[in-house]
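Blinded run. Sample ID left blank on purpose so nobody reads anything into the name before looking at the predicted structure. Input follows.
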Amino acid sequence: MRKFIFALFITMSVFILIGCRKIEDITEDTPKKVPELIINQAPETYYEVNTEVDASNIKVKLKINGDEQILPLTDSKLTVTGLVDGKLDTTSVGEKTITVKYDTATLTISYQVADKLVNDFTEFKTAIEEVQGLIVLMDNIAVETSETGLIVPKDHVKTLELNGHTLSFTTSYEGTTALITNLGTLIIQDNTDIKKDGTGSGINTNKALNPDDDWKDEDPNHPYPTYANNTITNRGTLIVESGRIENTTGGGATYPIDNNSTTSDAIVYIRGGAIIQPKDAAIRLYANSSQYENVVNVINGVIDGSRGIMIHAHGKAELNISNGYVRGTDPTYKLVIYSWTQTYGFKDTKITITGGKFDGNVYFTGGSNKTIPETVSITGGEFLGEVASYGTMAPFITGGKFKVDPSDYVDLTTHEVKQVEEEYVVIPKSE
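Blinded prediction complete.
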């Protein structure tokens, strides 16, 4: 009997152990609850300030181990921050963030609020003339009902977001024109220009059908164009962050950016984007005043023109380049930087280059009055063409890399020019 009881005890123990092992195996193999949140119906990229947007229109997908639910942001299962009374926060301009949580899953949703969303020319005209702050193009806009273009008023501060669209101006007006004349502070950017080199799809473009192309250098009565047809005429502060500004007009004076200081300080910052004109200068400094400042600062970006940057020194002019790529495409002169004057001279012209890449020739002191040359300092940069002057200049190069020997403009008592493979490098002289 005792043997039977003992055998029964052993048998039951084995069954219990096996059963416990099976329960343990089942527990280990049971999948854990792993939630995942995915955007299902996203908000628009931009909303206009104070627009009411019901947050229930924004939906997320909740996935838990293969099971899916589509939930609005207002669903009680979700913990959501960044909403205002069940609506998107459009009470102020700027980038907005919504955070959505479910258990361990978190999802961040972003959108932006602008002062004005522009869908057609009428809205664009109102925005340029009346609205301050962030203006966003929601479609391609043709400036078609104004012969001379539009004006940003003095004291206005506005950012024009191209948003991947084209802003164009074609005019048959025989006289001075500009797509935009800026008297205030204008910032241009394009969110599709990821590299900030003008390769996005956002474009400011201008074409004049009647430029002044009858001028000739040798004609005493018409030695230069009497009017300009620009994409942007700047008489205030212009900041280019990204996007493409171009002028496709051939002949005459037709610049993507014409920095004009005749009646006010004119300041330009090129921080990115591309300034393009295959048939004329990409940027002109029309320094027509001894009273007002005319300053162009190139911090980055691409400047590509028949002439890259041209200085018309009839007064104060200042050009500062610290980075970026400047190219001159004219097959004869291939000028990336060219300064020119008539009677005023270069006594108030200052050019400082600390970096950047220059694909073409840099020539100073052009024109008729060469008595006092520009004040020039080159301490860095890569120069793929000549650097020289049409006049007589004291040494001004103390650094940089050059394809053509720059020794004529280097003080060889303090610096030396070393040839390294196919380029010349200017460095301080060794003691």
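Unblinding after everyone has recorded impressions. The helical segments are 2-29, 121-130.
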